[in-house]
Amino acid sequence: MKKLLSVKNAVVSVAVLIGIWQIAYMVSDYSDALFPSPYQAFLALIEMITDGTLAENIGTSMFRFSIGYISSVVVAVFLGLILGRLPGVFKYVNPALQLLRPISPTAWMPFIVLLFGIGEVPAIVIIFIAAFFPVLLSTVAAVNNIDPVYLKVASNFGIKQPALTWKFILPAAFPQIANGIHLAVGTAWIFLVAGEMVGAQSGLGYQIIDARNNIRADILLATILVIGVIGIILDGILKFAEKKILKAWGGAE
Amino acid sequence: MAYIEVKDACRKYTQNGKETVVLDNVSLEIEKGEFICLLGPSGCGKSTLLNSLAGFERLNSGSVTIDGKEVEKPSVKNITIFQNYGLLPWRNVISNVKLGLEAKNISKEEADKTARKFLELVGLEGFEKRYPRQLSGGQQQRVAIARGLAVDPDIIFMDEPFGALDAITRMKLQDDMLRISREEKKTIIFVTHDIEEAVFLADRIVVMMADPGRIKSIVKVPAHSTADRTSQGFLHVRDRVFELFNMKTEEYIDYVI
């Protein structure tokens, strides 16, 4: 029943959004090429699906996203585990992190393009930066929040590094780390598009720029919708995984 | 020289410029195989004393020796059982019990056999594949006890281990703890604020007082006179301890009944 209701909510919500779009289309006097109707965007979507450009661009973008996001999570968790156990060192690292964190990853874009040129690398680097800080900081916080009884048990049973990290610290901190990983997926996905708009010649972000250059606003809007849908799916997958992890760890730990 | 010796133990904390003396020149001797209860109100330093014995905390002055050696850090020979169990929620019961065996150089089959043996001893055979969250508080503490026994320690420290359990579960665990301590012949140091628990379990009760934390008296419990919670022997010892808490008596008097 609850699930049915939430489906109903979603359908109504999207229908209203499309309704507003349709009304805006009818009352405005832009040409169709600049401001298409929902139906025209839908036709453009079908066109992209049938000629294969959509699948190709999704593939390209997901490839970059996976590389950037996964490598960022691995590096950030690894560093976070170390820094979380070395509060003396973290005191010196933290100010630098706080300085870099509020900088939008897009601000790095021109610099990254200068260094690496247009292609795969800039988009991957920008996703890496976008996911890096939230995951690193949540990992450090998670390690600091570990129930001291686990560390007491570990030292009592003579468990030393690296087993201490693998058997105690990582699993004990994992639910909170998983939360950071989940939140970072949305941020990273947002910046994938930015990265591809500036630094790439393929992918969903580039497709938006390409549609603008060809004055195909219908393709442009259809691509935006596809980006939104993929974002929801990614978030849903990680939300599901996080829930499973929390349950396996015995609830609100 | 006694097996465990605490000599002039002092421990102070300073908080907001105010100094609290948690242990004020505490001295205590414990023999091998004894079941000792540290009994007292909160703030009397009983947990601090236990933590110093277990190596989790250091004293400001004085010394703690076990078997002639100064205690500097926790050791796998002296296992501590905590009030909140300290089980790893991401491991199932048997894998929790095997935790301490993993640091030792023994085969998988051997570890498995040992773990099952001690799960049976605490009455949890058949629960191997469960996870801590699927167990009651009493069962979780039984797992922690099995995990401690599995590494064959010399001493078991217990820090208010049954404090979070309901009265009936607590009494069942007390019964089992008494049986286990006799079968396994371990030295047990048990912190509690429950007078009846101390009388039921201990060979000697170390009665402690707060502000500053100190030993007021040590009550010897005659062997086997307290195994029945309604017996005359039990009530007699309990009354003596009640008196110690209610009446002002001279300090450091050894009560022998």
Instruction: Calculate the mean pLDDT score of chain B and round it.
Output: 88
Q: What helical percentage do the residues of chain B reach?
A: 25-40%
Number of strands of chain A: 0
In terms of per-residue confidence, which ranges of chain B show pLDDT below 50 for 5 or more consecutive residues?
none
Strand content of chain A: under 5%
What does this structure look like?
The complex is a heterodimer of chains A (253) and B (257). The longest helix of chain A is centred in the last third of the chain and has 37 residues, at 163-199. In chain A, helix 3 (53-85) runs parallel beside helix 6, helix 5 (109-116) crosses helix 6 (120-144) and helix 6 runs antiparallel to helix 8. Chain A is built from 10 helices and no strands. By secondary structure, chain A is an all-alpha fold. Helix content of chain A is 82%, strand content 0%. Chain B is of the alpha/beta class. Chain B has helices at 46-54, 93-97, 99-102, 108-121, 137-150, 167-184, 195-201, 232-246; strands at residues 4-15, 18-30, 35-39, 61-66, 69-70, 78-81, 155-159, 187-192, 204-209, 214-220, 253-255. The longest helix of chain B is centred in the last third of the chain and has 18 residues, at 167-184. Chains A and B meet through helix 7 and helix 8 of A and strand 6 and helix 3 of B.
Keywords:
heterodimer, A: 253 residues, mainly alpha, 82% helix, 0% strand, B: 257 residues, alpha/beta, seven-stranded mixed beta sheet, four-stranded antiparallel beta sheet, 8 helices, globular
What is the structure about, briefly put?
With 253 residues, chain A is mainly α. Chain A contains ten helices and no strands. The two termini of chain A are 29 Å apart.
Secondary structure elements and pairings:
The complex is a heterodimer of chains A (253) and B (257).
Chain A: H1 2-27, H2 38-51, H3 53-85, H4 87-100, H5 109-116, H6 120-144, H7 148-156, H8 163-199, H9 204-213, H10 217-248
Chain B: E1 4-15, E2 18-30, E3 35-39, H1 46-54, E4 61-66, E5 69-70, E6 78-81, H2 93-97, H3 99-102, H4 108-121, H5 137-150, E7 155-159, H6 167-184, E8 187-192, H7 195-201, E9 204-209, E10 214-220, H8 232-246, E11 253-255
Parallel strand pairs in B: 3-8, 3-9, 6-7, 7-8, 10-11
Antiparallel strand pairs in B: 1-2, 1-4, 4-5, 9-10
